[in-house]
Specification:
The structure is a single chain. 42% of the residues are buried. The chain has one domain. Helix content is 75%, strand content 0%. It is mainly alpha-helical. Helix 5 runs antiparallel to helix 6, helix 6 runs antiparallel to helix 7 and helix 6 packs across helix 8. It contains 8 helices and no strands.
């Protein structure tokens, strides 16, 4: 029963995030193509005229953070057999980072440092967590291999983004490094529902 509950939470949390971003991007003050290519996810959460549905995007950040926290500690922790303490710490760091991003908006010089800190905690911490999880479970089968691939892609995309912050295509690498976590959340939901 615990696996089903956690699985449903993971699936709903990840789908809500994807839908909330898509809807927020649709109403952003730019074409949907330009929004996804040239505007960061954080811009969708800034309360201004460009993003009338900023509250929807911020709710998605907060919900995915709570999803990771609940799902990992309620049930998924039982699948971790090695490096438990580090996995717990990284889960908290990642979850708190995403929640900070949802609560503290970018674009404000007074708070942008906290927003950036939250983003680094979420993206870097989350993708390191995926790599660690893939090597901390009892087996190394398809689920673990896909988790390792997602974490590796996320880390590579994060470092490309980090060293190309001024690039016009930086938002693409940001999304690549974030979507690995969302895809893992959905995958983990399915994995728990099947186990």
């Amino acid at each position: 029963m615990k696996s089903k509950v956690a699985g449903i939470v993971f699936v709903i949390g990840s789908l809500y995030y994807i839908l909330a971003e898509a809807i927020s991007a649709t109403f952003f003050n730019s074409s949907i193509f330009n929004t996804y290519i040239f505007h960061t996810i954080s811009e969708l959460g800034i309360p201004n005229a460009n993003s009338p549905l900023f509250w929807l995007m911020n709710s998605a950040f907060i919900l995915i953070g709570l999803t990771l926290l609940f799902g990992n500690f309620y049930r998924f922790k039982d699948f971790i057999v090695k490096h438990k303490i580090i996995c717990y710490i990284l889960t908290v760091v990642t979850s708190m980072g995403v929640i900070i991003v949802g609560l503290v908006h970018g674009g404000n010089p007074l708070t942008s440092g906290y927003h950036t800190l939250g983003a680094v905690m979420a993206i870097l911490g989350g993708n390191v967590l995926l790599v660690l999880i893939s090597r901390s479970m009892d087996e190394f089968e398809l689920y673990q291999k896909v988790t390792l691939i997602l974490g590796t892609i996320g880390l590579v995309a994060f470092w490309i983004m980090f060293f190309n912050m001024g690039s016009v295509y930086m938002p693409v690498f940001e999304r690549l490094s974030v979507y690995t976590l969302i895809m893992w959340s959905f995958l983990t939901g399915v994995y728990l529902l099947r186990n």
